[in-house]
Amino acid sequence: MHLTKKQGRGIIDSMKDLSKRFLGDESAAIRLGEIAKQKQALGERVVSFALGEPLEPTPMQAIKAGVQALEQGKTKYTPTQGVQPLRQKICDWTKICTGVVYEPHQIVVGNGAKHSIFNAVLAVVSEGEEVIIPAPYWVSYPNIVLAAGAEPVFVDTSKTGFKMTAESLHKEITKRTKMVVINTPNNPSGVVYTQKELQELAEIIIEHDLYVLADEIYGGFVYEGKYTSVASIEGLKDRTILIGGMSKDFAMTGLRIGWSASNPQIATACTVMQSHTASCPCSVSQEAAFGTLSDTKQASAFVENTRLQYDERRLLLMESLDKLGMEYVIPKGAFYILVSIKQFVGQKAFGVEIDSADTFANLLLEKAGVVVVPCEPFGIDNYIRLSCTIGKKDIIEGVKQLEKFLSELETVV
To answer: What secondary structure does DSSP assign to 386-398, as a single string?
Structure first.
């Protein structure tokens, strides 16, 4: 039987609904970033503050190791958990960065930190249980929790310095609570939890026998104060699934190597989960990661050099926003600035009333060629996120275009 195109379309439209496990559409950062690339392909000038991706070249030692792996035919399946030499290097690197000691059998290498988070949540959390997530949050946390059949429970941090406190955590705990997410340094706010703050949270976590998903993928980028790992807090190591990766520290976003470090029972559960989803991490990418981490002094120098560059760009962008009179959360870590647009809500630009950060971002891209990320999907209204990873010239140009756009705003009478 041959169907016309119209008949085929009708069958698709009449089929049963797809899964409703996920909140909304794809990541706003990815969506707007793709629109920006399309405009650039058409010859339009676009400045993008969108994606959280280092623009620095990937370290040469990673490239050489990856090429060598291909030449040597290392293109077959590896152990599900990742190759042992890489897991040992991850242990060494984690000790340098956090002071916490792990053994290779406690490391599960995944295809990116996001994959490792997915493994951890599905390995630990059962259907009907709850996971507490401070808001604003990275957009994938609630979707991964929903994929596990669990319920995300949000803690509003906008009135507590964009950090979850022991008191606010305690208020949300129920008999169904299984896990707490702590992302430090934080995406999108840039806040960094202090040792004292983590100790106060630890008391509540231990009292209620909870697990912690500690996403510390931005641990290499702290500009004010000190980075303290959740796993380093007394009583939390065995409860914590510590997430790390190569993407942010080493500009290896496309090579997709992340990992979890946890107690042996959780590591085994994550390995089983991964065996049924991805089989194993990419063999060539593992070799590239191993090559990068083999010389820890060189690796540390690379991260520190990048951190210093991002700090300069962070300060430049903060100074520029100050001149525009825009309010923002001072980012002490990561490489984003969370900027309020509350003062512009209700005004009009080019005949369109700004009623949300999403409207603001879409107009800014369409009329000024500047990409920012609206933060409604991050769990906070009337804020946008700007990335500090772009070059200084682009920051200056982007801010000029933003200023020009703001000059077009009119108060709605």
So the answer is: EES-S-HHHHHHH
